[in-house]
Design brief:
globular
């Protein structure tokens, strides 16, 4: 499975709990926030000033090792 930038944060976390430390490491410390759960990864990256493509690549590289 791979994730995309259009997926909701809540959907991404359901794919694999090991994604949480990746999101935390790039500065998304509001993973448990109710509004973050309904936000797409693209929207969350925009709010945090992150390059969504870099974050997606990091997550998918992690998932490829599973």
């Amino acid at each position: 499975m791979q994730i995309s930038k259009d997926m909701l944060i809540s959907e991404i976390i359901q794919v694999d709990q090991g994604i949480i430390p990746i999101l935390l490491s790039v500065g998304m410390h509001c993973i448990g926030c109710p509004s973050a759960q309904g936000e797409s990864l693209d929207e969350a990256c925009m709010v945090h000033g992150l390059d969504v493509d870099v974050v997606v690549s990091s997550i998918n590289e992690y998932l490829a090792t599973k």
